[in-house]
Amino acid sequence: MDYKILSTIKSPSDIKKLSDDELSTLCEEIREKLIEVVSLNGGHLASNLGIVELTVMLHKCFNCPKDSIVWDVGHQSYVHKMLTGRYDEIDTIRKKDGLAGFPKRSESDYDAFNAGHSSTSISAAYGIAKAKQLKGEQSYTVAVIGDGSMTGGLAFEGLNNAGRFKKNFIVILNDNKMSISNNVGAVAKHLSHMRIKPAYIRTKRRTEKVLSHIPLIGKLFKKILKRSKSKLKNLIYKNTLFDVLGYTYLGPVNGHDMDELSNALSLAKKITEPVLVHVVTKKGKGYEPAELHPKEFHGIGKFDINTGEPLSSQQGFSAVFADELCHMAKEDKKIVAITAAMTLGTGLSEFSKRYKTRFFDVGIAEEHAVTFACGLATKGIIPFFAVYSTFLQRGFDQLIHDAAIQNLHIILAVDRAGIVGDDGETHQGTFDVSMLNTIPNTTIFSPCYFSELKHSLNAAAYMCKGLVSVRYPRGGELYIPDDYTNQSIDFDLYGDEDAGITLVTYGRLFSFACKAKEALAKEGININIVKLCRIKPIDPKAVELASMSKRIFFFEESLVAGGIGESFGYELKKTGKTFFYKIHGIKDRFVRHETVLEALSELKLDDKGMVKIIKENI
């Protein structure tokens, strides 16, 4: 397609020159380009399609980068990137050395704050606005929050504090009725209630107008009423939650009507107190498959533009986890499943249908999810909390304070563990091992294959006590040697124990270790592999077997600091034997966006990297 207008947008100043008809054409072209790019690269489509008009009007009404736009989560920033001088690079988004799939300050001055997790925008924007005030700068700060991020507690902490700010602070609530799964909870109900009462703001303005015209006492009464917290005020003003927190509420506004958006944003700029503009949008707008299936098109791999069908259908660990949990729940009514707005992503859609009373979507609230699970566990329920590794980070305090100290039996199904690829730094699952490894009363399983995942889930439920984590990678099974048959949930030895060189690893790296073993054998170098499935606590027999070798190499798809390699090395040292020991994992760094295989190769954690490191050290 020939993008006649979009291709001419080099900065937001170019948008300000366009006529209304040209703005409409621009929005059409943006949607076409979004569908084209995401179909080839994968990424977040539905949320970006829904925010096209809003993004265009934000850049038309404000003067960025002097004015700051802070995007919550940031997966809906593709449109923003196209309009801020990065259109020529948009085909590289989420590719190695290309544009990031999320806002990135190092990428552009127009990206005011990095984001990849939810509910951060209001707090960050308040900090930016306060810093401008301290420096005497006069400009607007806008936080764009939506996709269910209002279900996260941090959003309300930010709202509460920013409510005291005096001017030039605007919150845009992009209300598309969705997060990744359907919105849940009281906040979603509150927003729905406001959506069906669009006359709210008109009633409020009329009330103020009438009061202003009452001779002598009208203006005074209006001022007293606005400052009061009385039932009379609530009766007259029909306050929203946001009014109570100190915001002037504007909306609901049709997020696909640029005239409405322009009027609302222009009014918001004139108000001398914090403003919340409630914008209602349709997730997936303009592409029928995404409109009909917004959950599936929230984050999607490559797909056929004509049909919307994904181009890859490989069974993954998430699906195997979900199937096994359904099987376990059928046999045991004490088993329940918890998700934090990730029903589809963690594979729990079928569980949610089969066992409705035992399925809990708590919204984007991982801290609450962990403590909620702990409450369930005190009464003998067996809770499985399915969560991406990167999002589990938000529940760290609760894992220690609420779960481990009380030694409560809850199970973490940690999805997307290890390298996840093109979502980049904010989403890599490289921290859960080091995080959980430091917590007492914790067991961690890291299976390599589907059968091991099933065994680990059952062991977690019925053979373990306290906090248990079963972690598994994004995607499906990798290489399985024909002669590998053991698959114990503790550890396995693969190869000749007298080889003299031992490679120790866990999780999917075992598949690469097997290929490295075969490659080294062709060069006359024999090694054996100690494959850990339960990585905390480490089985003493695994340490004993490894200690029989003179050279031991540990490969870990996680941070070296605090990782299993350090723990294993400590146990080896206690044997008193003499050996060469090398840990190779992810050192003090964040892993950038690129494919999983590209990242593993760059980190020397694939078979070629293992061969190179072993040969260099023998």
Walk me through this protein's architecture.
The chain has three domains: about 45-75 and about 100-195 and about 240-280, Thiamin diphosphate (ThDP)-binding fold, Pyr/PP domains (Rossmann fold); about 315-470, Thiamin diphosphate (ThDP)-binding fold, Pyr/PP domains (Rossmann fold), CATH 3.40.50.970; about 490-615, Rossmann fold, CATH 3.40.50.920. Helices cover about 40% and strands about 15% of the residues. α6 runs parallel beside α7 (about 155-160). The longest helix is centred in the N-terminal third of the chain and has 22 residues, at about 20-40. The termini are far apart.
Q: Tell me what the CATH architecture of the largest domain is.
A: 3-Layer(aba) Sandwich
Specify the helix fraction band.
40-55%
Percent strand equals: 15-25%
Structural category is alpha/beta
Mean pLDDT, all residues:
91
